[in-house]
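SEQUENCE AND FOLD
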Amino acid sequence: MWEDSYLMLDKPWFESTEVLFGKAFELSKKAAPETYKEFISEWQYRIR
């Protein structure tokens, strides 16, 4: 039962968070207002 819960809830959340943190790291290298705006829009979309 716990494994099913993990696979359905936690694992997808960890995977999407990993992607977003990777993008945040890249953003810090090439900081520009447009890049921040794109990142925030994507972050808000994924959280919903």
Observations:
- The helical segments are 2-29, 33-47.
- The chain has one domain: 2-47.
